[in-house]
Amino acid sequence: MILRRKPRQLYRCRDGTFSTHKRRGACNWHGGLKTTDPVKLGNRRGGQSADVELIPLRGIHVAHQWFQNRAAPYSLRSVQNIVEAARSGNFKWANLDAITVWRNPADRKRYVLSGHSRHEAFRQLCEAGIKVDGRDFCAIPAKTFTGSLEAAKKLALESNTLSTKETDLERATFYRRQREAGADPGTARGRERAGAMLSLAKRLEGRNANTILAFSFLSPTGKTWAALQALADGQADSRTIIKAVGRWIGNARRRNPQLTDFHENELYEWLVMRKGYGSGAGQVNSEQKFLKRLESIINRRTTFGKLEESLNIQSAVTLSPVERQYNQRLEDARKQIKELDKELQTKIKNLTARGATAADVARITEPIERALRRTRIEYQGLVSSYDQVQEAARNEQRLFGVGSAATGRTGILPVLALVGGIYYLTR
Asked: For the structural domain made of 10-154, what CATH number should be given?
């Protein structure tokens, strides 16, 4: 917040920012009020300054590799909201929360710790020369954190979960990093940190905590993670199924640390691509049944305490030509989604580095976003058509059987079956 005079009182929010009041709605976007007791400006305690300073933008640096949990460098929607409000005259200085910066003890420079979107919006408005109530945007209200880099990273990760809503996978990335930093249940110290991480997840994520934590055990380069990303714009029923599969597999890896990324991909292929998920014969429709089936598979594939490299869940299943072509199209669509998403994030990062406005970024990246949405919809259509592909495969098998047992035209019927299946896939 920027005022001509020093505010009489400030109230601390849970993410470290401040509010000028403690009435209903205070710190709504920042985790709520931490305490109803006011703080005094200028008081330093625990490495963190309670001062809210007006810092020139030229004195603030950005280090996304340290303090940004998102795939993109900032939330484009948040930047657009601030920029449009300032240009339209609807911006209110009193509604702006201060960002948090970290002073690096090595080079004494300040880096944005939380508030990347607000910082970017101010940068664009400063370059455009926009003013509101006689003030420009070339300086931003900020408070300074002076702890270690490790403490600053932890504060940034926790603060970012309370800002503009992140995706489930972005929040899962936060908890995976926490675990990689030492919250490993394999040691006493690790179990203590894992317990603290679970408590943190329950506080920040609420009822979604178990799903987010399960996702954090998935491989970020695996098929399950890619499917969760690909179906971000999919229909509700498709998202529900993929989300359930992701939660099951993530929890399986949490309970069975011997499972590898390759095993994870096998489980995804079994549940989704080979229709292991469902209420039919041989299928599983609950996490409890899935884990029980997996436990049996692991017991069979473990020799002298060592799990085999492959679970071979579908070792007895031979795919038909129709199913092989379907799986290839599914894999190609997933690969295209991953490439388009990477291209989009790189384009946003490069445009931002070159000083492009939020409107320019949205306009330039719109064709890529449109292509990404279209490919995701096509991928969703492929996933949804699995039942029909299976039916085409069964018809093919029946035709093979009829051709060999009832007639002598064994060369014609298989060809007709194959052509019919390929025709369906290429319609």
From this structure: 3.90.1530.10
